[in-house]
Amino acid sequence: MYLLARVLSQQRKRKDAEALLRESIRILEEAGLGESPACLQRMMFHSMELMNLKQLDEAENLRRKILHIMELSKGWDSLGTTAAAVQLSVTLVALGKLRESEELLQRCLAVRKKILSEDHIQVASILVHLARLSLLRIISDIKVNNDLCRSHLVRGKRLVNDAIRIAEKILNPSREDQKKPKNAFGIELERIAATGILLEALEIVGHLDSGRMAIQAWAPANSVLLLRLPREHMKHGYFKIDVVRIPDKCWLFIWPAKYRISLRYTTLRIHFNKFEKFDYEHFEQALRRWVSLYNEPRTRNIVSNALRPLYMKCWRTLVG
């Protein structure tokens, strides 16, 4: 039943696959094997099908159950437990529970650094997840707290730069690393994972630069000048101000203040916003690098089909 469900899933018959998976898990649980590795494997695949069917609440409950079983059987200092926690964090992000997702990922990051090393590819994977989460936090907080958005931006850039550094170190190993004895198959798997992570990280770099521009646009005015003018000055729809000097690198916004227009006078509210000129070059370089890396024949052969829609998205963004 489980194997047939996997085939049906590949054929995009997700509802039929989900029903078979549910029944397969029920049989194992009734036989007292609900916490066995075989049942956990089915549960993980079942949660993925629930995510594909947009049944997010049910997917969250199932992934919490998986994490609970892993915690009881292996404890938190286990790569299997961190894998279950990462899956749960993805579901929490889809449900908008960003804070809880971030707490889980931070815990996973600490465990993987402890068990593996700070430059391991599985550490880079967590860093990419955290960087994407910082991007989502910028989007959610941009109209509420501009200073908080800036801290998310700085943190996101640091995380994604660390992920890129680790991925590039694996793809372009130093002479010392090349001399270390490693299994050829393991090296190839690591390079495949590093390529996927590098592509994801470069996409996030571009979006973080877009986020920086959005934060600037939503920044509050640095200073406000109220100017009271006779109504007759406004009757032609334009006026001239000689006494206001605008500093360099400032935006100027002028509009009538609400409830301040009387019969003889109107008050204009003049806003000065300091800004930095947005440099698209870094954004463009990241996108060009993503596209060129994906277009290499070797990369296209080893990277999963899931990244192809992402490639088209990056291409459209680059053209824009």
Structure overview:
It comes from Aegilops tauschii subsp. strangulata. The protein is globular, with a radius of gyration of 26 Å. Helix 3 packs antiparallel against helix 4, helix 5 (79-94) runs antiparallel to helix 6 and helix 10 (184-218) runs antiparallel to helix 11. The chain has a domain at 116-219 and 282-319. Strands 1-3-2 form a three-stranded antiparallel sheet, with no helix packed on it. The protein has 320 residues and is mainly alpha-helical. It contains 13 helices and three strands; from the N terminus they run ααααααααααβββααα.
In short:
The chain has 320 residues and is mainly alpha-helical.
- Spatial order of strands in the largest sheet: 1-3-2
Radius of gyration, CA atoms, in whole angstroms:
26 Å
Tell me, rounded to a whole number, the average pLDDT: 77
Taken as a percent bin, the fraction of beta residues is 5-15%
**SS-based class:** mainly alpha
- Taken in chain order, the helices and strands follow as HHHHHHHHHHEEEHHH
DSSP summary: helix tally:
13
- The biggest beta sheet, please? 3 strands, antiparallel
Low-confidence stretches: 248-264, 271-278
Organism: Aegilops tauschii subsp. strangulata
Protein name: MalT-like TPR region domain-containing protein
